[in-house]
Amino acid sequence: MMIKNFFKTAIVAIAVSATVTSSALAQEFKVRSINTQKVLQSFWRMKELNKELKGDETKIKKENNEKVAEITKLNDEILKIRKQLQDQNLPRNKREELTNSHKLKFNRLNNADRSRRDYIEGKIKALKVVRSTEQSTMLKEIKSTIDKYATENGLDMILDKGDGVGVVMYLKVKYDVTTEIIAIINKGHEDENPGLGKAPVPAPAGGNE
């Protein structure tokens, strides 16, 4: 009987100890979540980059259309020559002239189309490099902002719950700091991001959650 009571007492003590320890950890270990992709897309620098790249994409599309128009005109000329060559009564010298012209124009058409594709693909590739480089720089700035925010608010961890690439399975909405980080990183550019509000005043380290 004494042994049973001892084990019961020990189990209760362990359970109480575990509860107290768990409660203490919950109070001391401060965790928040963030959607980094949302922050990036809401960053004023990203909005400016998107506008700039959209303008470049419009120029590329215009250039492509102009080149296509030239190629289409050349193709129409080739079709016209082919139709002339179908004439059985066409003089030999005229046929030779048209045949040579057809060959030259056909080569020009192939070269023009190849040149167009290489030019446009090169332009698009260049834009992708610019976007990738700029985004990398922005993400470093966002990371720096997150680190500073965590330090100023006495946080132990901020988990990324980004769309489709996050590592957070569940965390209450009240622990998400995405909006706060967006406001901080856009400070001074609120007019370009209406509705974001002002950056919150950092809480002292070790403050309330």
Strand order of the largest sheet: 1-2
Alpha-carbon Rg, integer: 34 Å
Mean pLDDT over all positions = 81
Count of DSSP-assigned helices: 5
- Residue runs with pLDDT of under 50 for 5 or more positions: 2-22, 196-209
Largest sheet: 2 strands, parallel
User: Which outline best applies?
Assistant: rod-shaped
Order of helices and strands: HEHHHEH
Structural class: mainly alpha
Strand residues, percent: under 5%
Instruction: Assign a percent range to the helix content.
Output: 55-70%
Number of DSSP-assigned strands: 2
Distance between the termini: 47 Å
How would you characterize the overall build of this protein?
The structure is a single chain. This protein has helices at 2-28, 36-42, 44-85, 92-152, 178-185, and strands at residues 31-34, 157-160. The chain has 209 residues and is mainly alpha-helical. A two-stranded parallel ribbon has the order 1-2.
